[in-house]
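Following up on my earlier message about zinc ion. Here are the inputs again, as you asked, copied directly from the submission form:
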Amino acid sequence: MAARPILTAPDPRLKAVSLPVAHVDGDIRTLVADMLESMYAAEGIGLAAIQIGVPRRVLVMDLAQKDGKREPRAFINPKILWASEELATFEEGCLSVPDIWDAVDRPARIKAEYLDEHGKKHTLDADGMLATCLQHEMDHLEGVLFIDHLSKLKRSIALRKLTKAKRLSKAG
Ligand SMILES: [Zn+2]
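Thanks, got it. Here's what our run produced:
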């Protein structure tokens, strides 16, 4: 297992549409392990494979870490089967959009299906943080970042901040 560097916006690779996983095999389990390692190293709660440059429909998540225990989960080829009309608003951040947080409205409840890291199919009813986090991570599979849900003005301010931060980090 190895933590891999996380891409940050405006890296064009984050705009890629990720491809479905044909077979959940050892390579995918290695990818999942590396993604978890990368997510924990960066102190995130969720990560999509494209964020470490791998355009495959694989997500990892751990919403329980705060309590000092780890409950890692993998979602392979996730699909939303149903979403509530009712929306919920959460302050979102993203490992690929460092130091920027903003409120995003998304369906409050969803029904999703996915494969786990053993290739077993699951369906899941989610609300709260889990519903928001899943939708945020699934957006990455379509090349969408949470700042793409913000107003044009807010998004351009965020992108300007990110570009500036990148230039400074390259300089120093
Ligand atoms: Zn993200």
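One observation from looking it over: Helices lie at 26-41, 128-141, 152-171. Hope that helps, and feel free to reply on this thread.
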